[in-house]
Amino acid sequence: MNTSGKAVTCWAAIAWKKISPLSIEEVQVEPPKAGEVHIKMISSGICGSDDHVLKGTFPVKFPLIPGHEGAGIVESIGDKVSSVKPGDKVLTLIIPQCRECNSCLHCKGNFCEKQDVLPSSGLMLDGTSRFTCKGKSIYHSFRVSTFTEYSVVPEIAVAKIDDAAPLDKVCLISCGVPTGYGAAVQSAKVTPGSTCVIFGLGGVGSAIVMGCKASGASRIIGVDINEKKFSQARALGVTDCLNPRKLKKSVQEVVMEMMGVGVDFAFEAVGLVDTMTAAWESCNKSYGVCLIVGLASPESQLSLEAAKIITGKTLKGVCLGASVVCCCSEA
Ligand code: NAD
Ligand code: ZN
User: Fold this and answer.
1) What tens digit of pLDDT does each residue of 285-330 get?
2) Local structure of 263: helix, strand or coil
3) In this structure, are residues 173 and 154 in contact, taking their beta carbons and an 8 Å threshold?
4) Superkingdom of this entry's organism (predicted)?
5) What is the pLDDT of residues 177-186, one digit of tens each?
6) Residue 329 near residue 106, CB atoms below 8 Å
7) Cys-Cys crosslink for 216: which of 123, 140, 192, 274, Cβ 3.0 to 4.6 Å?
């Protein structure tokens, strides 16, 4: 069926309000405008950020079609779209790459100014939505809603992938895997023989473990309150598992005792201020590096013991594992 230029009616999951079950509804998806791509979604992951949205700890507008971790096939393209064509396999990008803004043009930046996460308007770049349901306009999730059979996303939020990529699995490469793996390999640059601790052993934390292991870390401590995560974490490379709820001391004190001098690299992949503080305090005071990967509520504040900032350790945030699609001459 040629859907080019036509609205499509399909099924999608809608969150009518926060902290309520998703409901499967028939929605109308408008055709793509200039600079937009119409995608037939084949698979979608569920990222921790979707969980924050649905639980109401991360502010977005409702009603909403959630999801952002998607793989699909280009159905049609709007005017001026040149990087993909109908039939191409693509991933959605929660943080786009406009290739024109300060972040995109800087070798060390990837937080494109055309992003719609901080803050989230829930609308396309022209300020309108492409989704309606029961006559009501429905908001987009970070401009890349994926819990729908068809979606419209900006061209800058689409990455073309190999024709042979398995679309049922590759959605995880859209967010969780590069976020975690890149945090370890590209941002922290974990070194051979180093020691690491990872707070949160979900999708992102598991990819951090893989990045630490691939970088040759000698000891990898995994921290999670859900012990069901431990067997897979060990299979991926975690050497020691800690459940903070079963410890008599704070987890950072236990990590310090285990390592003597604190870890070389600490990663937070939960999205809570307490685990961010624990990760920071688990690092070696002189040369440790603490990476914040988890997405905290924008209303929360991170409070650190100010005097200890001067001791030499580093606190960094990282988005999508510092991945970039383009661009500048320096590597
Ligand atoms: P997930 O739900 O799969 O995993 C979170 C894990 O944290 C779970 O295993 C859970 O049991 C554990 N956990 C919860 N509370 C804990 C606590 N107090 N101490 C220790 N462990 C605890 O989520 P995910 O998809 O892996 O995402 C993890 C975080 O990364 C989220 O905050 C998400 O929003 C964020 N994220 C950030 C980026 C980025 O670019 N920076 C990208 C994707 C996701
Ligand atoms: Zn940009």
Assistant:
1) 999 999 999 999 999 999 999 998 999 999 999 999 998 865 554 4
2) strand
3) no
4) Eukaryota
5) 999 999 999 9
6) no
7) 192
